[in-house]
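Why do we care about 3D structure at all? Because function follows from shape, and shape follows, mostly, from sequence. That is the central idea of this module. The next example makes it concrete: a single protein chain, its amino acid sequence, and then its structure expressed as C-alpha cells.
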Amino acid sequence: MKWRMGNVTLDILPPVKRYMNAIEHRLRVDRKTRVRIMTELASDFQSRRESGQSDESIMQELGTPEEIAAEFNASLGTSGRTASRWRWAFIALAAAIAFTRFLLPGLLLPQSGNLGIIGGADGPTAIFVVTTTASSTLWETLPWFLGCAGGFLMAGWCRRGAAQRYALPLLLGLAGILPQVVAGFLLQGMPGSLAGAYLLSSLTTHGVWLCLLVAVWAAWEWRHTAKHDKKS
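And the structure:
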C-alpha cells in the first residue's frame, strides 16, 4: 500500500498507516503546515527504514501519535485538541428541525388545507398568506440553524486552529440573538414588560437559547485558547 504526503511516497503496512493517520488527526495546525509536518515525518520514517530499522522499532523510537502531535503542537503554540464527535449532534439537530418545520407539515397537511385556514381565500391573497407563513417559519427557525452551525464549528474546525477561529461561531451565535432582541424591543412596539415576555419566549422556543449558549461557549473558548497559546 502506497501512502503519499507531499513529494514523499511511502510504502506502508496498515499498522504504519494507522500510526501516521493518528498523528495527522491530532495536529492542530492549518492544512499547509500539516502537510509539511507529515512530509518530514514520512521522509524520516523512510530514511530510518532504509538504514535497516523495522517499522515497529521506528514507531517505538518516535513515540506514540499523541506524544508526537503534542510536541509539534506545543512548538507551534497550539493546544492540540482533536475534533469532538459531538459535532455531528448539531448536524442531526439541524436536520431534525428542518424536517419538522418544513417537510413534515407539508406531508401531514395537503396544500389546499393550508389555503383553507384563511377562509377559502384564493388568488393573490392566498399566495400572500402562504408566503407570509413560510417567511415566519424561516424567521423562527433561523436561530436554530445558526446555533447548530456555530456548535458544529466549535466542536470541530475551531479546535484545530488558532484562537481567532472562535470568532466565527461567536458571530453566528450573536446573529441568531440580535434579530430577536430587535424584534422584541423595537419592531413589536411593546411595552417593557411585554417585550421582556416576548424575548423570554424567543429564548425558549425559537432556538435563541442555543445561539446564546454557542456565543458564551465561543467567547470562553477563545479567551481560554488565547491564554494557552501565549503560555506555550
